[in-house]
């Protein structure tokens, strides 16, 4: 009779019949591969048999910290022999305290410890105490410590991004990636910064790299799924979310993204059902509340939609999306005067968006305003100030490589004009191409070429997109050759032509 190894020994007790040194080396390899759960399982089992193994206990602490388990890390740290504590013991103690939301304990842990790691703990602890000035000072002190700590740089970038300083955040992110190209913190904040810049392709690449190196990381999954949604790649977004639920379980962030995916399919019943089942987190998130209200509005439940939006505007009175949606709902409920009042902050400036002016005109007519016809006439076309402001914002977004915002603004300009401005069409094509939407980009590029067939930049955009999409290589080379002849000093056009010709 052939005896079988018991399943509990074969699967759960990873060290069954394994030499302790081999088991420790296996845990080290798992940790190096960012498989912290496997490392933890091996180390816990090993320490049950070899309680004095100092190296295994230290690696277990680091595994707990990497897994975000502050309680287990703190308990394991206390078991380290005081005479054998690692040099960064107090920093790890502070990290464990932060994971348990105990900023005062974290500050006490690092005490008089110097260096980038300790300053990072201080900065995050001060943020936990809502002391942004002290946090900024700690980050700045860490920067002059002489140590290029990727985690400090990444957290500092995240802090500056929250302050609205995208340019400084980008500089810090680049420094973090230079210090460690595989740092999870650096990759995640790179994704967030690229999203803020409108560089969605870069954001997607960064989150994908994070997931490749740190499989199952929730923040990377959420970031990548969100960007896929922004790019309109709903099928890929849903596949990632389905895979994530089977690996990491549920979370508020994944729930919201699941609702977003349903909205992209116009499945508003599913959006409502998903968010209705998660009322607690919906109440605390403006984006979830707005999406919930949108679903309720689409399903004819305007009164409930209004009740969802009012708290959002109480918390965030400058939220234009919430104002626009609330005004729409108020009009459906017959509250035209309420809609007018809601829209007033959006239409009170010469640079007001045409879509807001048109909604305001509709509300004025419904309210029986005597000047409703005049408002309606003025809303038919954007004011010169409005159009100039939109063009300036689009140009700023384009120069900042904020492709996503540029696309939104250029599409808005086309919607309220006759759509024949070749520079607007060309810039929209360029921005869409940078986002990876090459087919749609080519459509706008060819439309721009129709209105300005001899403009070198427009010929270059159309020719290069024809080449990139493989639509018409012969025409691509012809356009690029003519563009190069018109602008011989333009290095970009020359490079495009050389690449197209080299491809045959």
Automatic annotation (TrEMBL):
<protein>
    <submittedName>
        <fullName>Tetratricopeptide repeat protein</fullName>
    </submittedName>
</protein>
<keyword id="KW-0677">Repeat</keyword>
<dbReference type="Pfam" id="PF13181">
    <property type="entry name" value="TPR_8"/>
</dbReference>
<dbReference type="InterPro" id="IPR051012">
    <property type="entry name" value="CellSynth/LPSAsmb/PSIAsmb"/>
</dbReference>
<dbReference type="InterPro" id="IPR011990">
    <property type="entry name" value="TPR-like_helical_dom_sf"/>
</dbReference>
<dbReference type="InterPro" id="IPR019734">
    <property type="entry name" value="TPR_rpt"/>
</dbReference>
<feature type="repeat" description="TPR">
    <location>
        <begin position="184"/>
        <end position="217"/>
    </location>
</feature>
<dbReference type="Pfam" id="PF13432">
    <property type="entry name" value="TPR_16"/>
</dbReference>
<keyword id="KW-0802">TPR repeat</keyword>
């Amino acid at each position: 009779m052939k005896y079988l190894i018991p399943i509990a020994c074969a699967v759960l007790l990873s060290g069954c019949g394994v030499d302790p040194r081999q088991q420790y080396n296996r845990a080290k390899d798992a940790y190096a591969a960012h498989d912290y759960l496997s490392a933890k399982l091996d180390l816990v089992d090993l320490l049950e048999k070899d309680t004095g193994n100092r190296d295994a206990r230290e690696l277990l602490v680091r595994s707990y910290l990497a897994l975000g388990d502050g309680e287990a890390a703190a308990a394991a740290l206390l078991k380290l022999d005081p005479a054998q504590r690692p040099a960064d013991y107090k920093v790890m103690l502070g990290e464990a305290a932060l994971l348990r939301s105990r900023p005062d304990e974290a500050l006490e842990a690092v005490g008089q410890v110097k260096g980038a790691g300790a300053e990072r703990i201080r900065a995050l602890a001060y943020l936990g105490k809502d002391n942004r000035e002290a946090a900024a000072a700690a980050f700045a002190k860490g920067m002059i410590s002489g140590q290029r700590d990727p985690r400090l740089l990444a957290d500092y970038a995240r802090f500056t991004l929250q302050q609205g300083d995208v340019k400084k955040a980008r500089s810090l992110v680049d420094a973090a990636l230079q210090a460690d190209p595989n740092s999870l913190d650096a990759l995640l904040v790179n994704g967030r910064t690229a999203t803020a810049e409108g560089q969605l392709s870069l954001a997607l690449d960064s989150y994908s790299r994070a997931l490749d190196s740190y499989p199952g990381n929730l923040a990377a999954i959420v970031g990548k799924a969100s960007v896929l949604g922004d790019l309109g790649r709903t099928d890929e977004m849903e596949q990632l979310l389905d895979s994530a639920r089977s690996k990491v379980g549920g979370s508020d962030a994944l729930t919201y993204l699941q609702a977003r995916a349903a909205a992209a399919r116009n499945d508003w019943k599913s959006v409502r059902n998903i968010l209705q089942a998660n009322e607690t987190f919906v109440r605390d998130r403006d984006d979830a509340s707005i999406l919930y209200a949108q679903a309720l509005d689409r399903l004819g439940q305007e009164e409930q939609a209004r009740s969802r939006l009012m708290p959002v505007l109480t918390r965030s009175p400058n939220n234009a999306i919430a104002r626009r949606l609330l005004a729409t709902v108020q009009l459906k409920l017959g509250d035209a005067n309420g809609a007018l009042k809601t829209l007033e902050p959006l239409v009170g400036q010469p640079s007001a968006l045409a879509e807001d002016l048109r909604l305001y005109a509709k509300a004025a007519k419904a309210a029986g305003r005597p000047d409703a016809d005049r408002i309606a006439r003025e809303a038919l076309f954007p004011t010169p100030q409005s159009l100039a402001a939109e063009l300036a914002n689009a140009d700023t977004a384009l120069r900042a490589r904020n492709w996503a915002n540029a696309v939104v603004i250029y599409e808005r300009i086309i919607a309220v004009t006759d759509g024949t401005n070749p520079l607007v069409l060309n810039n929209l094509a360029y921005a869409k191409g940078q986002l990876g939407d090459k087919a749609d980009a080519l459509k706008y590029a060819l439309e721009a070429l129709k209105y300005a067939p001899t403009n070198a930049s427009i010929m270059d955009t159309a020719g290069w997109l024809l080449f990139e999409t493989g639509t018409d290589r012969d025409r691509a080379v012809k356009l690029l050759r003519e563009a190069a002849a018109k602008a011989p000093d333009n290095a970009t056009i020359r490079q495009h032509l050389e690449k197209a010709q080299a491809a045959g």
